[in-house]
Amino acid sequence: SDIISSIWSEVLKCRATTVMIIGILCFGSLVTYHASKVFGSGNRPRTSPSPAIKDMLHNEMIDIEKAMTEILQNHKGVSQAAILAKEEVHRQHILSETYQASAIFVIVGQPSNYAHISMRDVSKLDFIHEIVVWHEGRDGDSPVKEWRDCPKELHGKPVSYFHQSSPRRQLAKYVACAKLARAKSSVCYYQQNYRNATGYVKSLWASFLRSPDLLHTAVSAPHYFLDQELVVREEASHIHAGFAHLNCGAFFLRHHAASFLVRVESGPVEDSVAAGEAADPLFSLGLNSPPRELANRVAMYRPQLGDPQMQPVDAYRSRAALARHHLRALELLVLSAAAHPPPHAPADADDDDDFVVSTGAGGARGAETGDHGRGKEFFEDAVSSCGADNCLLLTNLPAVRPAPVADAFQLVDRLRPLLERHEAPPACQAFVREQYHYAVDAGERRLHTQWVSAEEMGEDAYFGLDLLRLHKDLRNVSAVVAHDFQDHLVLEVSMTGSDYYAVHSVPVVEEVRGPGRLRRYTYDLSDSLASAWQHILELPTERHETTPTPPLYIRFVRFRSLRGQAAAVAVADLAYAVGDPL
Prior knowledge:
Distance between the termini: 29 Å
Radius of gyration: 28 Å
Strand content: 15-25%
């Protein structure tokens, strides 16, 4: 029938692991049976087959293909898996078409070599479709000369140059995004022109596509720790927001930038002035959603001859210098929430002890589908890029103890002493020195840092990887850990990040030399998934439709706890091996 032909066509298009596995199973069984007919049995010397035998082999191969076709056409589970794979591939294509980004560069003063290098690197990214250059002078200086050597095009991407006579400072990026970017761009990417974001910009983009309504940034470990401390939450007004640091790389929606400009331009004069000095905290807090920050190794380009020597920004001193603007941003958020209260909750709504805060892809799904116990909170689940910029470290366990839920009128008083600190506290220093984990480390010291959760690993807590792309051949995954409950965690894989399939794989365990007691657990997924498909094909027909099947493509892999563990997670390294991506 047409339906069966369509399903078979989609299976062929998928080119996935399942087709290979089924082919091997069918080929192995049928060839073993037919080999005796063609060659006979025994240990006779091998000779070249005659033309008649070659014709017989050709006919046998046709029989094998017919047998494979019959199996696939009549197995509802395999057909459904193929349909789901097609839908996910289509969804990924729609995402890439829907969200197209313009890169924003703000150059203050005379352009340096940094500007050209950073623009060149960004232009190589396929999701960047345009580069917008905003060129302004410094406060109090004479107007800066126009950059006549600004390139018109880089790697096929148009470069739009705008020379400004009056500086807008931090506000410039939002003006350029909302008013100067091309009409087709729905997303803006910003980084300071001397920042080298090549080590994490692809994974930052993948993080953005998972939850486009959030602000996504890459930050240093000290900035990550501080910003997690500064997250504000107030239940009655549904306030859940945070401050962000955008200079090392950030993706945000263009309409968010436009809405922010409307608020600034229609607000009091003092707020317009503050926006020039502290637009980033005003923008990020005004979204009323905590930014998705990736704790990465941020770097700067090596200065060329004549370039200024740029110094790293101290997270605590820079926040303290703008403390009053941060507090003003919080006051505006509280006033806005009071003026637009959320709808009244129904009488049978969860009480205060069940307050769950979660807006991220993995965290939200965990909160919605699992019974995590009263008072349990699940957080944004992407926390770091991988060393090779080919994956993201995922977890719904925080690395920094979350801020308590406070009354709206207490938020400012709670934040004030945190913002006025000029030095990192001991907890931050320890996090930066020992507990900062780059999901798949690069370099010889990859086992000398580890990601450690701030809480014990409770029921349904997890850690794992987003591989950024769909893979048809995930061969193995390994975890180097310091915790002693790895054997009690379930290995799960997923194509979409929402529906996970438990893989039954017995790991190979070995001691690893490094700081403390480390063990490497290596899981052979190729063999485990092949066994799973063989079991599915052997099931009776009436169980085909109801039996879960492994995903044809895999993008997410994680380790999940089925019951609470009395210790924190301590991961020194995660690694994986795949074939060619889709």
